[in-house]
Write a structure and sequence with these properties.
The protein is α+β, with helices and mostly antiparallel strands and 206 residues long. The chain has a single domain, classed as Phosphorylase Kinase, domain 1 (2-Layer Sandwich), CATH 3.30.200. The chain is built from five helices and seven strands.
Length: 206
Amino acid sequence: MIILEDKLYISEGLARVVYQHPNDSDLCVKIGKPEVDVKHLYKEIIYYNKIKRKDVSKFEYPFYAKYHGEIETNKGVGFVYDLIKDEESQQTSKVLRQYLEMKPSPISDNVFLKELNRLKQQMITHKVFASDLRARNICCKRFKDGSVRLIIVDGIGHRDFLPFADYLGYFAKKKNERRFEKAKLVSLDEQRDYIKALRDRGDVIV
C-alpha cells in the first residue's frame, strides 16, 4: 500500500482526486470520490484496456496519458497514470483552461489552435475518442524549444453501443469533429465565453 499525503494533491475533477505518486514523480494516482459510483470510474479503464494494443510508435506524439494499472492506497483503490510535466521546469503541466484564462497568456491563440488541430487529427487517425473533451482535461506540455503539445489526461473513451468509429475512418473523423464542436474547442473565443458562462453559473470545476 502507498500513502497519499495532502502535500501530494495536484487537482480534482468531478469524479476523481489526483495525487502525485509518492514513489515516482513521473506518475500520478487518481482516487474516486466517495459519492461517485465505482462503475463510472471503471468505464475509462475499460476503454484504456481496449486501446492498449495501439502502436504508440506510429503516433506523431503520445497524445493521451498512459494508464499503468491499479494500486492500493490509504485512500482506497488508486488508478495510476502518466503525470504530464513541462520539460524544462519538470513542474506539472497546466491545463488548457488555465492558459485560456491568463491575461496575458504566455502561449498565443495561434499556437493553441494549431495544436488543437494536431490533437484532433491524431485522434482521427488513430481512432481514439474522449467522452468528456474539455479544456480542463487537456494538459499543455511545454518543451525547452518553446513548442507545446496537448495531451488528454482525463475523460477518454466513448459509450457507443455500435462502435463503428473504432474501425472505420469516416465515422472516426465525424465523431471526433462533433466532439470538438460540442466542446467548443474550434474557436478559442467561444471556449473562453463558455468557461466564463460556467463560472458565472457557479460551477466550481469547469
